[in-house]
Design a protein that fits this description.
about 160 residues; Helix Hairpins; about 70% helix; flat
Length: about 160
């Protein structure tokens, strides 16, 4: 029986990852005037999405903690004047908005990463056309092509 060394296992994992990346690059659609996705481009986009996910998770954790602190503190506001009550309400609304934005950004980044892993990354969720590499490299979480995005923004 042959035992696998750590170096052999690492080499096999790298080969598997490279093969997976190559197959993924072949499946991802691009616009007619664009070159196919390279393994390096996919790796870069994946890294950006993973970083965004981590940042949004941290932002969400902080916002939820701040909101929780504000909600606890609001119960002992007996005797507050109107200005104090208004300031506390504004602060709660702000923290709720921060948490909602972080939650939405997290969901978008996770969705994009899931699409990347499934080989459906870069396809407009509205019309089914390729979104375009340049747009995705500038905004990796994009789910709509520019035409569909502009239509949505107008409404």
């Amino acid at each position: 029986m042959k035992s696998t060394t750590s170096a052999e296992a690492t080499s096999a994992a790298k080969t598997t990852t490279a093969t997976r990346a190559r197959k993924l690059a072949e499946r991802l659609r691009v616009k007619d005037d664009e070159s196919p996705w390279s393994e390096a481009e996919i790796k870069e986009v994946r890294g950006i999405l993973e970083e965004e996910i981590e940042v949004h998770r941290q932002e969400l954790e902080v916002a939820e903690r701040e909101l929780d602190d504000l909600l606890r503190a609001s119960s002992d506001g007996a005797g507050d004047d109107q200005a104090d009550a208004g300031a506390k309400t504004a602060e709660r609304v702000h923290e709720i908005a921060l948490a909602a934005n972080a939650r939405a950004g997290l969901a978008q980044a996770e969705h994009a990463l899931e699409q990347l892993e499934a080989g459906t990354y870069g396809i407009c969720e509205n019309c089914g056309s390729p979104i375009g590499k340049l747009r995705l490299q500038a905004r990796p979480r994009a789910t709509l092509c520019m035409t569909c995005q502009e239509k949505q923004d107008r409404h």
